[in-house]
Structures are given as structure tokens and as C-alpha cells.
Amino acid sequence: xxxxxxxxxxxxxxxxxxxxxxxxxxxxxxxxxxxxxxxxxxxxxxxxxxxxxxxxxxxxxxxxxxxxxxxxxxxxxxxxxxxxxxxxxxxxxxxxxxxxxxxxxxxxxxxxxxxxxxxxxxxxxxxxxxxxxxxxxxxxxxxxxxxxxxxxxxxxxxxxxxxxxxxxxxxxxxxxxxxxxxxxxxxxxxxxxxxxxxxxxxxxxxxxxxxxxxxxxxxxxxxxxxxxxxxxxxxxxxxxxxxxxxxxxxxxxxxxxxxxxxxxxxxxxxxxxxxxxxxxxxxxxxxxxxxxxxxxxxxxxxxxxxxxxxxxxxxxxxxxxxxxxxxxxxxxxxxxxxxxxxxxxxxxxxxxxxxxxxxxxxxxxxxxxxxxxxxxxxxxxxxxxxxxxxxxxxxxxxxxxxxxxxxxxxx
Length: 411
Hints:
The protein is an alpha+beta fold. Helix content is 18%, strand content 16%. It folds into 2 domains: 38-144, no CATH class; 157-402, Muramoyl-pentapeptide Carboxypeptidase, domain 2 (2-Layer Sandwich), CATH 3.30.1380. Strand 3 (79-83) and strand 4 form a beta hairpin.
């Protein structure tokens, strides 16, 4: 016997919970639509005339009613907006308890055609109806379109440049937890410009949305680290122990953020790799980053790099090559815009050997983002962390003695 479709089950549920049924009413078909009525999103169809939306995707098995050019809030009830690799968007039926025969529940939470052994392409294999990358890459499927916070501040530099506490301390995809002597009541190292805060919240929500159903990872929010103090000073200045080189983490343009991790209990700032040789700390990864959730971290970096406000992002020398290799695949699959992959060539900074540019050490437990001022803006002091920087203003000994999570404290 053929397994009932999702729409059939839904129709039965409605029938059971509804008031007394009119026995003279015309029964509904398997799509949940009465004969003669237009079919809902996800129902089988032969052409657009059969669908309430007027659109039928006839190249999918049995045809499926869809609605193109959607956003996170525009799809009819019971359907979700998904994005394809070419940038187009379409409403598809939500998975619910099951998808109709020939379809499976995709990573975006919508029903998509089940694959077979010949349909996935090079580098992928069909596993339980879904195309899975042989090297653990994300599914080659339509991606979710979510309701997102605003990425860019458009209120002018006077408002966008205000230093504010990073609040709320927890939100979609992020956790601004107390560290380096902070308490929940006094997170004095956690002040950022409004535009910096907006971009970080957006990037965190982007990963939570797009990678929600990806395999691997710990499914925890990203941990946020040092920003600036309330007056724009380097974190730790007010206690007589500035924890970063002169010119960095000032006026809310810079932030230390953890990496997404695989087998740890959370994504707080911590080493993601072995960083000692013969018992001596090298302050950088000396082996591959075995705790790194590489795909989510690459997606996160790419989300930041999609913004023209990013000046530079610094990562460990073992992380940078991984991200640069993965981001083009994320762009090709539609998880990231092409602009992010272009920016990664010049704005993702790392050193695989010590070239004296300042990135070689102290980024094995966090990434560092730095924004440039908006056009016509002012108040930007960070002259140290740039892709072609000169030597740091603080020595390794200085950073070690200051004991800050952003640099030398975490072992």
C-alpha cells in the first residue's frame, strides 16, 4: 500500500479536529485539495494551471506546485522559502512528519527530490535519498532563507559609530559570555560600535540559519570575546592591564570571536589544536586544528567577508588555508555570495610561517575581525592589524603576562 503523503495526513488531521463534517461536501484528493480547487504548494501537478500559485516545477518527479521569488515571510502556510545555487528562491512544502513519495526532507526543512546513484555528481554519493559529499562538505541542496536581523547600519556615522554594550548578551547564534575578569553584571570589555555589533549579530544568525541541519559540530552558539571598553580603550586598560597591542581593539571596530568547534561542549574561545612543542607553548597551531568545525567556521568567515565594511579578518595559519579551500565550494553551492570568495583572497589574513606580520601567533583560539570606517567616517585608530602590518607593539612576553583570552591566557 502506498504510504500517505504529508498533505494527506494533514487533511486527515484537520478532518478529525474539525466540527461536524458536511457529508455532502466534495472529498479532498491526496494533495489535500478538493477536486476543481487549485493545488497547494508541494502538491503534484502537470502544469501551472493546476496550482494555486500558478507555478508548477515540472522537471521534478510528478511535478510540484511552487511559488518563485520568495523571501522568509512571503510563502503560504505550510511552505518554506529556499534558495538555489543560482540565487533564485522558491517556496517548497515544509517537511512536517514526512514528504510525499519520491521526495526527502532537505537541509532547509523543505521537501526535495530524492537522489539516486547517478544524480549526485562528482564528489558526492547518494545516502538515504540525499546527496552527501564524500569529504564531509554540506549537503548539495537548496539552502534555507531565514528572517534575518539587519546587517548594515544606515543611520549615519554619528549613530552607527556610537559605542554601546553588546546586548542582549545572548541572541540567535551567539553568546557574549563574561571572560577575562568580567562578570555577568560588569562586562566592561564588551563595548562595540553599533555597526560592528549589527554585523556580528547578522553573521552569527546567518550561520545558525544556513547550517542548522549540517552534519557535525556541537550546534552551540558562537562565543564572543574582547571588544573595547566603554570609553573606546583597549580591554583591560581600566584595570591597568591592556590585553592587546596598541592601536587594536579601540573605539569598537575590532572583536575577538571563537571558532566553531566539533567535539567541544560549546564554541567559546579556546585552542582548537595542539599548540606546544616539547612542552613549550608556541602560541599557534603546530598540528592540524582537530577541534575545528571547519565548514561552519568557513561559512562564518564568508558571511563577514560578504560585507564591504570588513577591513581584515585574522586567523591561525592552520585555519586560513582550510577556509580558503572551502569557501569557493560554499559560494558555488549558494551558501555564500561570490563577493565573499573574492574578498577572502585579500582580506583573510594568516601566516603559515612567521613573516613578522602579526598573525602567526595568538589566533589558535579565536579569529579577529576589524572593520573599516564608513565612507566619510572618523574615529578609527587601529593601525596595527592590517594585511601588511609592521611588527607588533607588544612582545610575546607582554601578551603572556597580561593573561587575556584574546591572546595568551587560554592554554
